[in-house]
Structure formats: structure tokens, C-alpha cells
Predict the structure.
Amino acid sequence: MMNHADIPSRRHFLCLLGTAASGLVLASCGSNPAQARNFPKALSNAEWRRKLTESEYYILRQAGTERPYSSPLDKEKRRGTYVCAGCGNHLFPSETKYSSGTGWPSFYRPLSEAILIDTDYKLGYPRAEVLCADCGGHLGHVFNDGPKPTGKRYCMNGAAMDFIAG
Ligand code: FE
């Protein structure tokens, strides 16, 4: 016979099982846990292949990195907004861009709720990976050697973004 006190604990147990199962799903996705989440502008792999250029796909969907100094956005100085090349999500206002000297477009602060941070072990140690909050696309990484006022350096791949002047 089941008494009422058992019900919450049983539920709690099932919830823990669910958490463990989703953890396994994330772990099995290895280098791209972003694909295990439900992003509002998610597309299938085939749809991304059709929509993106080769270099956009390599960076946004395969977490690749462009060669430093290869993107015209590294030297972009006009006023405007940097948006995700995958889904158009507005990421960084030009006011937060600065010259880091790294060869990658660098910013000190994203727009509110524009990005998500994940942990990436690709180089064998943890790095904070920057993802588009809307489509889950890989944009770059964030480091703690940026300028004031945040001290952050959002090190972005120019090919993962488009620039809208104005
Ligand atoms: Fe996006």
C-alpha cells in the first residue's frame, strides 16, 4: 500500500533520473553540447548547411576558429550593430568594440541576453565558449583580460557575425 508521503519522494527520484539522463545526452554530444538544447531559432543540420556559407558553417556549427586578421570585421570602425550570421540575433553594439590586437573582433560587453556561455575543453583545458542565445551558434570565447568597465574580452569570429551600419 502506498501512503501519500511516498509520492513527493518518488517524484523527486524520477526528476533526478531525468537530470542524469539529460546529462548523458549532453556528454554524448561531446564537442557540441549546444545541439542538445532547444534554441528558439534552431535548425536541422541540413538546413544550416543550406543556409550558411562554408566558413560560417565551420565556425557557427562546428565551433571552428577563423585565422586571425582574416575577417574585415576585425578592422570595422563604423557605428552599428554586430549580429549573428546564423540567425540575425543582435549581439554587440559597436560602442563595446575595441582594438585588442589579437586579429579577432573584440568586445567588452554583449547586449543583454544575446549570448550564452558554455565550457569548451577542445584545447584540453576549460575555456568559456560564447554561443548565440537564439540559435546556439558558436561565436568565439570570452577571457578575463579585457578593458574596463567589464574586464572581459569577447573574442569573436568575424565570419560568425554580420555588421549592420547605422
Ligand atoms: Fe544566432
The pocket of fe (iii) ion is lined by residues 84, 86-87, 89, 132, 134-135, 137 (CB under 6 Å). The helical segments are 6-28, 45-51, 54-60. The beta strands are 80-84, 90-93, 97-98, 106-107, 115-120, 127-132, 138-143, 153-156, 161-165. Residues 32-165 form a domain with the Metal Binding Protein, Guanine Nucleotide Exchange Factor; Chain A fold (CATH 2.170.150.20).
